[in-house]
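Researcher: Please generate the 3D structure of the following complex. Treat every line as part of one assembly.
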Amino acid sequence: MSGQHDARYNPQAIEPKWQAAWDDGDCFAARRDPARPKYYVLEMFPYPSGRIHMGHVRNYTMGDVVARYKKAQGFSVLHPMGWDAFGMPAENAAMQQGGHPAEWTYNNIAVMKGQMKPLGLSIDWSREFATCDVEYYGQQQAMFLDMLEAGLVYRKNAVVNWDPVDMTVLANEQVIDGKGWRSGAEVERRELTQWFFRISDYSEELLEAIDGLEHWPEKVRLMQKNWIGRSRGLQFAFSTVDAPEGFERLEVYTTRPDTLLGASFAAISPDHPLAKQLERHDPEVAAFVAECRRIGTTEEALEKAEKKGFDTGIRVRHPFDNAWELPVYIANFILMDYGTGAVFGCPAHDQRDLDFANRYGLPHPDVFLALDDSSPVSDTAFVPPKSEKVRYVRGFAGDTVQTGDEAVEAAIAFCESKGVGEGVTKYRLRDWGLSRQRYWGCPIPVVHCDSCGVVPEKKENLPLELPRDVSFDKPGNPLDRHPTWRNCTCPRCGAAALRETDTMDTFVDSSWYYARFTAPRAETPTVAEDAEYWMNVDQYIGGIEHAILHLLYSRFFARAMHKTGHLPAKAIEPFDALFTQGMVTHEIYQTRDARGRPVYHLPEEVEDGKLRSTGEAVQVIPSAKMSKSKKNVVDPVNIIESFGADTARWFVMSDSPPERDVEWTSAGAEATFKHLARVWALSERIADLDTEAPDPHDDELMRAMHRAIDDVTRTIDGFAFNKAIAKLYEFTNILSRTKASATAQKQAARVLAQLMAPMTPHLAEEIWARQGGEGLVTQAPWPKADPAMLVSDTVVLPIQINGKRKAEITVAADLPKEEVEKVALAEDAVIKALAGASPRKVIVVPGRIVNVVV
RNA sequence: GCCCGAGUGGCGGAACGGUAGACGCAGGGGAUUCAAAAUCCUCCGCCCUAACGGGUGUGCGAGUUCGAAUCUCGCCUCGGGCACCA
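Model: Done. Output below.
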């Protein structure tokens, strides 16, 4: 017998011991091993907010279960971790509390890593990096230059939220009810020249390739398809009447050319060149456009705003009737970024157009009617699915009765034949604006020269490092007002020049970190052999909130990296399989400050609906995604300290299916701890038994064991970790009650340790060691279920009468259908229900059910 | 507003179109204990019944099917995303 043992389950002793053993064995270092298949599992890396929360624990435990399971199955596993470390919170902290964003960030990383380490994750920490490491963003700058050269980056004007008091650009989340979050000033929309990635050049390719992402959730694929938003429509030009010089034609794009004869007005975006032209000379237009610009920059704000227009007095001629003139409005709901920034309105078949027409007293002639209902449109637009047949009363192409889709195609063909515009395919996807007017990001490595214009920095001058000597006590971007950093020489002509002061969107940082993990210390962004071996990510795991932007940008960036020689062709879709975990939610506690603005409080600051500090009552807002800004986060450190990492890990995996949201409750943690303590005690008891000869009960236990192996293997493969845990409960219950021999029990206990190891690796090692397992369970091969032990001779079949369960029979598993039917018809309940008559129908589903229809 | 999801006991959740509620939590009863904690056994959707048993039941309303939590259509409620939060 081994030496000292605790009298009870003691994770505080067990967990550090095994973590040290894994470190000693260098168990989690990823190595290129040509002899073994590789497996790359990646969880979306965290923003270093300074504390881990339950969402992190859930995310990383899922990845760890996969990593440990795949390792046991013989794969060479890469399971890295890093930090998405640039971004606004660091600057906000510097503004609020002083200090430097770098200091704040690296300090947070140290704290969070300290909180993550006790979780016992099988991470190769030797590959760790932060995106704010100059070694990382310097390589990003090199790639930016390559992409610039390859024509993947360009500059154009774009609209931002401008805070006129703080003299700064605001993020959408910093705009609250149209006002700056800090200054309270009315936010303006302002145009700046900014850098863009040409992601829209890849619209079609990114859309087409979605069909190949077989192991992505269908809903994410659908969301991305809708986001890219391919549409087929007609682009044509109205000729204008009384328009300023240079605006003789007004280009519009419509996806419903079949409704052209139902047009009642034309509308242009407030950002349309024509609107800008009118704004210059007409104060009324200027006032209206200014009002529109106060709405904000988000699509949501535009869509929710009351639909308003301004009649410019300009008219356009209908392309099919020169005498028919339509008024041209500037309308607040037209997006300049989509189509041509100008549309015609057909109120009868678009609710937004109808609301607009009713507001301004414009007609709304019906173009088509339902086949079974001829009532004209009044307050509700008639907008049937395009696949539905309708009767055209103002159609001009194709049959009178046809589907919308047919009519659209017919209308395009007709218009093209008459020389009125052409059919075009457009995408909703816009180019990716990467400029940020902030300090704490990757500097864009270009120089502005008076004579040469915009010039890329030379690669040998990289990395272009952020200056450390900055302060945040004044409004605006510290890079703009830095005394020396901006000053440089033009890489082309050598004259004095100024650096670009915009930094990159943090989505750029997170669009290639997965590739960097394959060669994290390289002097180039990637290394061909490493990328070749490790890419693609076999399993990517992260929050559903990243379903569109991060994942779409990464898909684009991988293509851009391939084009510039930084990734092999096979890596243009970097994530083979995607799993989107549900979020961990929690209630939100809110009070308001003197100016009525919301102030949020951490759960630990609240007790019985009141602030601990002041006793002020808090407003409880129903559960929502845990977020730093709402402060509804729970600190897992406390759970780990009182119950151990295995309890935290087991609990977050057991409580709900991984793809669904889970509301954090502390109640379950204690119950999990009790269960793990029971398993530990069970193992101790079994370990103390003396080996004995086989017993008749052994077969039953072995069957249960093989059943458990099979169940846990299949459920982990299917990402159904909560079900895997339910099966482990069942097997544990059987093992604790078995009358099998000690030899069989010990074997079962070793298998239990192996099956638990992905979820509760420390306890598993402890059991494995106590039951005489060889080496570390972390390095043991995954057990295999014996198919012969999974089948049973008899089967219980429910008997239904008219679909309702009335009885049950036990028959041999291989009993023929006809025999099963005979047995079923001999059941008392069936005889009673038939009352002498013969059944109308008997359905026998072998091994499943018998249904007697009377 | 637009796009995408999710709704099953007191709670978290199981259920290839085939016995709804596996497994866990909470709760009731019991054993052990001087007593409690811990542990173990046991019951546990709802309604009627002393019990046997019967009825009913997966957000709401229709439909398809021998059979629907599961498929179809229409609603309701909650959540995510909406391009400068990460």
